[in-house]
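thread: overnight batch results

M.L. [08:02]
morning all. the overnight job finished for the chain we discussed friday. pasting input first so we're all looking at the same thing
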Amino acid sequence: MFKGSMVALVTPMNDDESVDFVRLEQLIEWHIASGTSAIVAVGTTGESATLDMAEHCEVIKFVVDKVAKRIPVIAGTGANSTSEAIELTSCAKKVGADACLLVTPYYNKPTQEGLFLHHKKIAEAVDIPQILYNVPGRTACDMQPETIGRLAKIKNIVGVKEATGDLSRVAKIRALVDADFDLYTGDDATAIEFILLGGQGGISVSANVAPKAVAEAYSAALAGNAELARQLDAPLMAMHQKLFVEANPIPVKWALVEMGLIGPAIRLPLTPLSKEYHEVVRGALLEAGVL
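M.L. [08:03]
and the structure it wrote out:
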């Protein structure tokens, strides 16, 4: 349903840690002008874990309203409580999101059967396109290709964001799903190779700071031009890696502050980027040509 560079958009905040809707609108317009294919609102990078339910829905509605159907909006609505995920997904549908992105339940370590039943129940409860999100490095929960294959048979589960960085999973998942089930990467460093292996695009952290460059590299990969895609991606590689020197979204929010695009606020338990990493991240941004 979606393809190309989909930004996992940060949630800018004021000094009092309330959502900075002025800056958020500016980011939305910048991404649309820069060729970003879709916006993911309130995903991991959008500090979904620290926004309360009301804020979560408010941000999704704001993004949907400001985008105004110019590009798709995918709402992050996953939770480690099935009932909470249903509530968030229902809210996203109500305010007009085009799809939802549902991270595997974190912390409580469900079985593969638990994962299947969790996502099945959400899909049956809310009739909106849903994208599975597998990121075991954050959730301590790894959805196996076989479970993805089972879930892909449910009509409104339309794709998976596979963020393990394991490129062998592209073929494993593709062999278990229909041709119209989409595969997206959540790992910037391996995104070009993921797309060249048959993925439809990526939900990117790096796109927050280099939206035009990431969109161009992904477009080349989608067109099958491997040489050009790798050439375009090469200056971004250090950035792909250094934006994770501390937990996402700490480095990417610091980068956007350096670029003058947002204020420095971030919610506890996250803290501003440690000083020891400032030059490391700044160097990667300079190499990428965004500073």
